[in-house]
Every structure is written in C-alpha cells, then in structure tokens.
Amino acid sequence: MKFITPAQAADLVGAESSLIASGSGGGHAVPEALLAALGERFRQTGAPGGLTLTHVVGIGDRQDRGAAHLAQPGMVRRLITSALIDAPAFIPMALADQVEAYTLPQGVLSQLMRDMAAGRPGLITRTGLHTFVDPRQDGGLQGGRMSEPRVELIQIGGQDWLRFLPFQIDVAFLRGTTADEDGNISMEQEAIPGEMLSTAQAVRRMGGKVIVQVKRVARSGALRSRDVRIPGILVDHVVVVPEQSQTYATDYDPSYSGELRVPLNRIKPLEFGARKIIARRAAMELRPGAVCNIGAGISTGISTVAAEEGILDRITLTNEQGFIGGAPLTGPDSGAAQNWSAMVDQPYQFDFYDGGGIDVAFLSFVEVNAQGDVNISRFNGTIVGIGGFVNISQNAKETVFSGTFTAGGLDIACEDGTLRIVTEGRHKKFCDTVQQVSYSGPFAAREGRKALFVTERAVFRLADGRLTLEEIAPGIDLDRDILAHMDFKPDLVNRPKLMDKRLFATQPMGLSEADVFQRIGACED
Asked: Do the Cβ atoms of 327 and 339 come closer than 8 Å?
C-alpha cells in the first residue's frame, strides 16, 4: 500500500481499461479529486482513451463535477450506470451514439459487485422483467451500439429470470474518511456507505488496482477495528485530500454521518405549492409501523411532510443508499439522511427491497399510460436513467407514484380549500404510449402489487388492468382540467370523491390526529 497524489492515481489508469468510481449523487462518497485528475490528464495528453466507466449510482453536481470530468470525446467508449442525470454532459454523447451507454437498475449493479467479488456467474434476479432493461426490449441500452449484452433472459423452475452478466474491472476509485498507515479505511464522516467493500473485493479478485481517496491519515493500529470498512489487504494506493467535503453542497454535517441527531424543527418544511400538495396526499397513505422507501423528485418531500405533521417517528422511512429510519434529505444532498437508526451497505438494502420488505414505496412518474406502465428513464429528448426505481417499484407491496398532472409551466392557485389551474403545463404526462417502460402495469397486476397515482388535482388507482380515477380536487372540472389533458380516458368510479380540502391550505393538516395514527398497533394491510 502506497500513498500517492491524485495525478499519480490518474496515471495508473491505462488505455481501454475498465474503471469503477464509488459514490452517489451530489458528491456523497465520490472520489472527486481522482476523477478530476483523470479528466485533466486526458485534456493534457489525450490519454487514457477508450475507457469503460462504471458507477452504480449517478455521480455529479449536474454540471461539471463527478463523472462529468470524463465526458470528453474519445475518453469513454462505454458507460454502465443507473443514472445519467447527475453528469448531464454524457447525455448528448449517448443520444448521438458517441458512447455505448447503459442504465441498469441501481440495486442490480450494487448486488452484482458482490457476486463478481465471489466469482459467481452474474446476478440472477427477476428485477427488470418487462421493463426496458429486459433483453426482449432494450437490454438497458440508452445510446450507441451494443457490443455485448449486459443481461440475458433465462428460465428457472418454469419462471422467467434475468441474468446480469459480470464484467472486468481494472481500476477502482473509492472513497473513505480515514486511512491508517496499513491502508485500512474507515468511513466515519461519509454520508452514504455504498458498496465499497464488495467493489474492492471484486477488483482485487480480478487483479485490478484499488485506489482510495481519504481526508486524513492515522498511524498504524489507531483505527478501531470495528470501524474499518475496507481492509488494507484490499487497498493498493491511498490518496489524501484534506479539503475533501462530505458532499458537493455541504462541507460537513455530523447529522449526515450519524454522529448527531438533530431536532425535527431543523427539518425545513416544504414551500407551499403543487409539490407540497402532492407530497401531502401521498403522505396520507402512510400507516403506523409501515416500512417505506422515499424515492427522488416530488417523493423526497414526504419525509419533510411527515416531520411537519409529527408522524415521522411513527413510520420507518428508508432509502436505497442504505438508511433505515430518520428523514431522507431533499435538494442537492438528496441520497443522504438525518436521524437514521441504522445504515447498511447498499447491496444488503436492495436484498431487503427485492425480498418484499417495503410496505409502501413513494416514487415519481413522468409518463403513464392507460394500463399503468410508467416511464421515468427517457423522455423529451433526454436520458435520465433508472436509479433504484425498478428494484423498488417491482418488489414493494404497494407503490404510490407522485407527479404533477402536466409538466412545463404549470401554475396553480389555492383559495378556501379549492384548487384552480392558473396556467396549464405544456406537456401531457398521461399518454397513449410511454417512450420506455420503467414499470410494467400489467406485470404488477399479475404479481398482485398495488399502485396509486397522485397528482395535485386527481388521484388514480391501477385496478383491473386500467387506470381508474378515484379522487378529484375541489374546484377542478373533470372535463376541462383532467380529461382534456389526457391521451386516454381513464375508468371512472361512479362518483369520484373530493380530495381532502386540507391539502390545499397552508397550515399543517393534522395527520397525527388521524384515527389511524391514534390507534396503537402494527401496519394495517
């Protein structure tokens, strides 16, 4: 194990080699200095080119950091990740077929690291069936020409399964907080755990180099043995970056790393508007004792609503990065959490998810059709990716999809518990066809999974294979404000009930006083 500089680390990446980088979203455990040094080396020398780049979660500030350092023509020929949106410089390259780009489920990639570490023949799972990840559709390909398949369809016991194939990794860029002189790595200030250990094990098994960026160095034997997350036997080189920040937006917050629990009144309430109305209505699906997942987009507001309403401690919120309990964060630090009860490595969180551990999942939608197919991955000429969406939605007992009814310039007003559309959005979201299938409504129905679709003006349920309108906001006209902006006519219950008028007022709704939260007992079915 040697201590080296970021530039020396960049020199260890050879032409046409395969590189994996750790981290999540806006700088959470992202080895930023290593990626920046590698990008600078290519700008100065034109090397190394033709790389295969893998990162399990999207990494970047949605501008020029993270994976975006490597989004240079000729530098990356293949990209394997769950999301492109955090490094948008890769999106036009994928759309122009300049890079062979795949967006595979976050949980799949995370668990695949563990299977690759053990030398298994890939990951065998049902996650991804009947979505664009299925080889009968796109096989996860988002740009370029498929050089070799990432996934294949197999049958076991008369059932369809997917086998995600292992692949070579030559270099790993990982991150921790402290390294001792023997290369043991702790992560006491990191905002997420990731799959650091599994990745290091996989790369070491393949004969590759494991390089870890840290903030500080301790003498040999100074780290508590139980705090070591990557043993030194798996580490080849350490790069010390004293200015390493916890995330791109936050230099250091001890509540992110579980060193401090903050009062709930520090969790800032959502600003009143369409997003808060939707998050509130989705939060009405919470039940005492429920184990939930909070996804990206509007759904991230559910934790702040639960805190404002005084019910956060009556439920268990989780996110795919490995947190159990507490409040997942919103905004640029989304992916981290505060006041969590436990933190597990990401592959194990997805084991729990895939096994049906989530009672209710709260996710977003961009397009939905009459049979309940949902698209969040590719639309309006851009590629977002899939994140943990497929693992979560395909295995949760019930999924609540949240989103505005239309997109692009939507403006609303609320008066006396009613809703009025001031300016309608330019883009329809309830479409005849969806560009990509991120969630299969028919498959979910066959599996007995429930789905609810929440917007600021209407609530739909997937019933008998069709979207059914169940609720309508006070002040909204069915024909003018709903049906006129859908490509299909949903099934209608005899008389859609009115959405709760408290949704459309600025003061808290008083959810803690609801009958269900006054009863003591387990989560009801």
From this structure: yes
* 320 catalytic per annotation: yes
Q: What is the DSSP string of 130-197?
A: TSTTSTTTTTTEEES--SS-SEEEEEETTEEEEEEPP----EEEEE-SEEETT--EE-TT-S--TTHH
Amino acid occupying residue 421: I
Residues whose CB falls within 8 Å of the CB of residue 157, separated by 6 or more in sequence, listed in order: none
Which structure tokens are listed for 296?
Answer: 């990206």
Q: CA-CA distance, 207 to 97, in Å (whole number)?
A: 31
Confidence of residue 265 (pLDDT cuts 50, 70, 90): low
Q: For residues 439 and 368, what is the distance between their CA atoms, to the nearest angstrom? A: 9
pLDDT over 90 for what percent of the chain?
87
| pLDDT for the residue 525 | 42
CB atoms within 10 A of CB 88: 20
Q: Are 424 and 406 in contact (CB under 8 A)?
A: yes
Q: List the one residue out of 88, 230, 245, 246 whose CA is nearest residue 172.
A: 230
User: How does pLDDT run across 312-346, given as a tens digit for each residue?
Assistant: 888 999 999 999 998 888 789 989 998 899 999 99
* Residue 218 DSSP one-character state: E
Length of the chain: 525
Q: Is the pTM of this model over 0.90?
A: yes
Q: In 3D, which of 443, 398, 384, 351 has the Cα closest to residue 137?
A: 443
Select which of 32, 195, 309, 320 is catalytic.
320
* Run of H or E including 450: strand 450-454
Q: From residue 402, give the alpha-carbon distance in Å to each of 74, 280, 298.
A: 39, 10, 7
